[in-house]
Amino acid sequence: MAADYIVKDIALAGFGRKELTIAETEMPGLMSSREEFGASQPLKGARIVGSLHMTIQTGVLIETLVALGADVRWASCNIFSTQDHAAAAIAEAGVPVFAIKGQSLEEHWDYLDRSFQFPEGANMILDDGGDATLYVLLGARAEAGEEIIPVPQSEEEEVIKKQIAKRMAASPGWFTKTKAAIKGVSEETTTGVHRLYDLHKKGQLPFPAINVNDSVTKSKFDNKYGCKESLVDGIRRATDTMMAGKVAVVCGYGDVGKGSAASLRGAGARVKVTEVDPICALQAAMDGFEVTLLEDEVASADIFITTTGNRDVIRIEHLREMKDMAIVGNIGHFDNEIQVAALRNHKWTNIKEQVDMIEMPSGNRIILLSEGRLLNLGNATGHPSFVMSASFTNQVLAQIELWTKGENYAPGVYILPKELDEKVARLHLKKIGVKLTELRQDQAEYIGVTVAGPFKPEHYRY
Ligand code: NAI
């Protein structure tokens, strides 16, 4: 029988295993979940489809889900983000993985389809950006003869439609059956969460979803401190450019923008920010960044980074005006923040994997990172293990909640309770030597909380 995985080179498994072992020492939340829940096997019977960057950190997540009793099949949620040694190590351990760094878009959707193909069918989704959820829901619409809703990454629309048609021809009724079998989805990122709330608003979300992104220990850590480390890492590995003294423009000052601006400032760049939201614009200004318009900087800045989760932020008219050898990249989830499609008819010179030099009509060249896909995972290895441990511990708790108590939830989008958020943070203190002060009983009463927490009301924003 053919091996039930697709990886670049299974011989990379040994290297992957060594790095997994190191990552485990930096992921205390996941490792303590194994200790706490390993014996009781709360995920027994769960058949989880994972669609999330197949990195070393994700490898530790996968092995935690398996340690808790789950059956798991995995695809990456981005064509450039896979770490091939991580995929090999996980495949060798017996988990079906379908992910290769640099896979085509056709392969991306084919691999996602394969990750659903449990002999007894999938019953849970762990998503990052919403592609796995989208696939099942679009397919079920197609089977019902309804029009397929437009997808946000429109270049991919045709590819998705083809993949859906292929599955419909191979297994009639498969999407409808799968949609009915899914007990719930846990979603990793801001963009995926937007999709879920939108689906729910339209009455098209058939199962409960846990918004992992908006756990405080996810978005206020991974999106911010993670990007603070991984943005500049990506730019350096791609270009080796001197960052100090350069002018960098960060579009968007949400959680990812805050981390990205801090990353560039930390490297000595002179950072400017663009925003549409007056609150975030004011935050950026008071953090000491010049807040300005892209149009005012486009001809003079050296580095441009989009962090908005929005479409068409750097457009062709901006790209045309940039100075020679400007560096352009995106760290938001999808590749629609920069109008890369409009550059396709220009002259591209590939410098190395995920780095292209594009000649503009003026003769100026721009350096485009990861073809506009998220550059911290395309050009580097994403966030460090420690911060991903916090994100992924929320994922594990969300999967346990949905699998063991899913019937208590009506279709909708939920956030994990604050007790669990605080628990995730607590699990990460010892590793970095944090000493936590304990409230006295009278102090707790005075501020209206209990000694054991939660320490903040729901409306507190951190
Ligand atoms: P957010 O909603 O906190 O921040 C986005 C910001 O962009 C907002 O403040 C918004 O006002 C601003 N914005 C929107 N349109 C704009 C425009 N045209 N010009 C300037 N600013 C604009 O979202 P968050 O959490 O920062 O996530 C941003 C993106 O990054 C999402 O796609 C998310 O999925 C992704 N993400 C990527 C990660 C990575 O490792 N690469 C990690 C976490 C999230």
TrEMBL record:
Its cofactor is NAD(+). Pathway: Amino-acid biosynthesis; L-homocysteine biosynthesis; L-homocysteine from S-adenosyl-L-homocysteine: step 1/1. Keywords: Cytoplasm, Hydrolase, NAD, One-carbon metabolism. It comes from the Bacteria. SUPFAM superfamilies: Formate/glycerate dehydrogenase catalytic domain-like, NAD(P)-binding Rossmann-fold domains. Belongs to the adenosylhomocysteinase family. This is Adenosylhomocysteinase. It comes from Pseudogemmobacter lacusdianii.
